[in-house]
Amino acid sequence: MLEKYLSRIDFDSYEDFVENFKINVPDNFNFAYDVVDEIAAKSPDKLAIVWCDEKGNEATFTFGQLKYYSDKAANFFTKVGIGKGDPVMLILKRRYEFWFAILALHKIGAICIPATHLLTAKDIIYRNNAADIKMIVCVGEDEVIKHVEESMSQSPTLKAVALVGGSKEGWYDFNKEVEEASPEFARPTGDKATTNDDIMLLYFTSGTTGMPKMVRHNFTYPLGHIITAKYWQNVEDGGLHLTVADTGWAKAVWGKIYGQWLAGAAVFVYDYDKFVPKDLLNIISKYGITTFCAPPTIYRFFIKEDLSKFDLSKLKYCVVAGEPLNPEVYNQFYKATGIKLMEGYGQTELTVVLGTFPWMEPKPGSMGKPSPEYEVDIVDENGKSCEIGEEGQIVIRTGKNIPVGMFGGYYRDEALTKKVWHDDVYYTGDMAWKDEDGYFWFVGRADDVIKSSGYRIGPFEVESALLEHPAVLECAITAVPDPIRGQIVKATVVLTKNYTPSDALVKELQDHVKKVTAPYKYPRIVEFVDELPKTISGKIRRVEIRERDA
Ligand code: ATP
Ligand code: MG
């Protein structure tokens, strides 16, 4: 499959990769027909999805079955009145029907908007109106049904609702409808066919720094994830890949569909509600996961388990992204498993921008080097390229080419799009510096960087220093306004089991930071809490701590 889209597939080194990698984007590319149905035609029995849930239910789907179910689902959507360009929201957690629905929507050319089940009625109203949503397909759980129903009276564009795994008056029963629908769905032609510029997906950002933004991706987007899957996650043809992500976040399409199938790997889906490290480790072992991708927090919990108790012999390759990875976590995971965590960096707006690619030796704590699709730079406040070692904002230069996989803008918000992307430069909002070998090192979000007595302090480095102390389970570094210094450093800390708050411990943590980093970075204020404020996807919301302290 990859031969169709790449000028070359195998590379000898990172340099070779950067120089010679090229994606050939065909006209009117549509992932559902050109990849899924094409594999289904050639190798209908090839494995696409292995699924299980917490209760022990299991299911597998081949490409032949995915074609069959997505054609049926496309007929159901058409019957309900969904056509090209119609926005449809999917709140399906990790039910396997998500894959039938998303492929069906691609086939029709409808706009797919995956969202999390944790949305309240207010959130759903906001989204329904922001995107003129015409239909919602959601899981048949009371809470979710209630929120969708409460949103209806204030959502004038909403015309139909359907349930997966449940039935209710006024709702379509998705499973029954799909079962009864015809399995023949012809690829639309003429005006009804999709083009590369049509909107395929709208994803909400995580909402770490403020309100989630609605990110617009067109039909070429899946091809950008060839790099994500084949050259960063290092998935194998015939392998079984697991990315830990709810389908409501872009990370799900980074790791549970496009790039993996293009590269011939099957995706594994573990449909769970509560993250229990032991259960996930057992799943990896039982199903023989070969490649694995998760945010740092999952690994932070893994290293607290006795990893020698799990058979991880099939697991060959592990990658990490989403938040900065503290070197301590890298080192402990390596010690326990012999696997080097390969870090990557990207956003909902982008695909993998920086990565530790297979030919590279990882540097613990570094995000890696630029992906061949992106012209990455670090610039100072005046937009001038930074020197080696100098901190600045990560930007993408888009003058020569717009990377395949990069977003088209924020949906219906040209002002915000212009603010972050103008004069052929896209501003990521993230601060970093580059070393002599070209590796990028994360400093913090631009909003999170602290200015104290003329020093600039990145939260990540101080957090990593604190995490090396056995008393610290998790922590967040933020600025507190100060009349003399401008800002001072504050640590908000969650303690590990065997520790309790005390003045002596505050002093010990402060001394620890002074010892492992430059002393001016130590937290002058330390607050102990039971829990850090986080996004639904599990990222630390420093903005919330700052607002509380202001
Ligand atoms: P919002 O934009 O709504 O505030 P968000 O930026 O967290 O939320 P995502 O698109 O899910 O939404 O996350 C992208 C961000 O995650 C990046 O801009 C960066 O701050 C962070 N990130 C991703 N990978 C890494 C990494 N390897 N190291 C450090 N930070 C990372
Ligand atoms: Mg963001």
From TrEMBL:
It comes from the Bacteria. One of its GO terms (molecular function) is CoA-ligase activity. Residues 37-411 form the AMP-dependent synthetase/ligase domain. One of its GO terms (biological process) is acyl-CoA metabolic process. Residues 461-539 form the AMP-binding enzyme C-terminal domain. InterPro entries: AMP-bd_C (IPR025110), AMP-bd_C_sf (IPR045851), AMP-binding_CS (IPR020845), AMP-dep_synth/lig_dom (IPR000873), ANL_N_sf (IPR042099), Mitochondrial_ACSM (IPR051087). Keywords: ATP-binding, Ligase, Nucleotide-binding. Belongs to the ATP-dependent AMP-binding enzyme family. PANTHER family: ACYL-COA SYNTHETASE MEDIUM CHAIN FAMILY MEMBER 3, ACYL-COENZYME A SYNTHETASE. This is Acyl-CoA synthetase/AMP-acid ligase. It comes from Acetivibrio clariflavus (strain DSM 19732 / NBRC 101661 / EBR45) (Clostridium clariflavum).
